[in-house]
Design goal:
The chain has 213 residues and is an alpha+beta fold. It is 41% helix and 10% strand. The protein has a domain of 149 residues: 60s Ribosomal Protein L30, Chain: A, CATH 3.30.1330. Keywords: Cell outer membrane, Membrane, Signal.
Length: 213
């Protein structure tokens, strides 16, 4: 009985640790996300116009956002200024998003084989009729190991890799994918800069007008 209780307690602790580690990340059992998890995270919440209850959209604000996004479409990731990167981050803060723990080969922008299923799930999700045609930001992030300049360049190359994969393999329109790199400037766990959780790709649905009613 003691052995059973100890085993049960160990399993409970292990399960609790797993839940804590994956909080904020839609992860499948093998460490990869599923298409449905990505869809659920990126579908915009319904917005309303006028005096009705619920979240409301300001047409003027929406027009301003669209104008800005049009200035960064089809731009090379490296060409974005610090101000433009921060403006993208500011807009993305209020949009539907998901953090994907996409691993890359060491010191490289090549997608690791173990993370290919996550990228494939992303391609299927963004090709879904409920999301297709929207504008998405693909943001690359690194951990805090290494210099700021090196990590900035690495995050940009990795964001570009994801975009290229999605365009080539899923026929997504390149102008609908805005890539940006943040290096180590926006750590998910700032207290543990070297934690792998910081090495991620964030995908944001910027085109919330698709959910207006």
């Amino acid at each position: 009985m003691t052995r059973f209780n100890n085993s049960f307690a160990l399993k409970a602790v292990t399960l609790s640790a797993i839940l804590s580690m994956t909080a904020g990340l839609a992860m499948a059992g093998d460490g990869n996300v599923s298409t449905n998890q990505i869809l659920d995270a990126l579908k915009p919440k319904p917005v309303t116009r006028g005096l009705s209850a619920g979240p409301q959209v300001d047409p003027a604000v929406q027009a301003k956002e669209s104008t800005f996004l049009n200035t960064v479409r089809n731009r090379s990731t490296r060409s974005l200024s610090t101000g433009e990167r921060e403006q993208i981050a500011e807009l993305a803060a209020t949009k539907p998003k998901i953090d994907l723990e996409i691993q890359f080969d060491y010191n490289s922008a090549d997608i690791a084989k173990t993370s290919v299923p996550s990228v494939q799930a992303l391609g299927k999700a963004l090709s879904d009729p409920s999301l297709k045609g929207s504008t998405f930001v693909v943001a690359g992030h690194t951990d805090a190991v290494g210099t700021e300049a090196y990590n900035q360049g690495l995050s940009e190359r990795r964001a570009d890799t994801i975009k290229k994969y999605l365009v080539l393999n899923y026929g997504l329109t390149g102008t609908d994918l805005v890539t940006v790199g943040y290096g180590k400037t926006k750590l998910k766990d700032a207290a543990n800069g070297a934690d792998p959780i910081n090495r991620r790709v964030q995908v944001v649905n910027m085109d919330t007008k698709t959910a207006s009613k």
